[in-house]
Amino acid sequence: MTGQHRDLTPEAAARLTLDPGPWLSCDDCFEQMDEFVDRLLTDGPTGMPALHAHLAGCGACGEEARSLLLLVAADEGIDPAPGLRRLAED
Ligand SMILES: [Zn+2]
Questions:
Q1: How far is ligand 1, taken at its centre, from the CA of residue 15, in Å?
Q2: Cα–ligand 1 centroid distance for 28 (angstroms)
Q3: pLDDT digits (tens, 9 = 90+) for 13-67
Q4: Virtual torsion, Cα 53, 56, 57, 63, nearest 10 deg
Q5: How many angstroms does the Cα of residue 9 sit away from the middle of ligand 1?
Q6: Domain boundaries, given as residue ranges, for the chain
C-alpha cells in the first residue's frame, strides 16, 4: 500500500500542533510535574503543552507546580522568577 500520507492542509497541521490532545488527569499531571518544572527553570521550550494547559486550568495542580518550582529553584540556588513567569504564560 502506498500513498498513505494524505495531504495535510496548513490549517489541519496547525490544529494538530496546537491541540494539547487528550487532557491529562491530575495524576498524570503530578507524574510529569518534576520534569516540567525542571524545564521551566531552564531556557529551553517545555514541550509539554498538555501539562501546561492542565496547570493553567486546574488550581490545585497549578499551585502545586508553583510550590515545586520555588522549592527546586531554592534548592539549586537559581532565581525562580523567570520560571514563574513562564508558568503563568499561556
Ligand atoms: Zn489537576
A1: 24
A2: 9
A3: 655 555 545 578 999 999 999 999 999 999 888 999 999 999 999 999 999 999 9
A4: 130
A5: 33
A6: 24-88
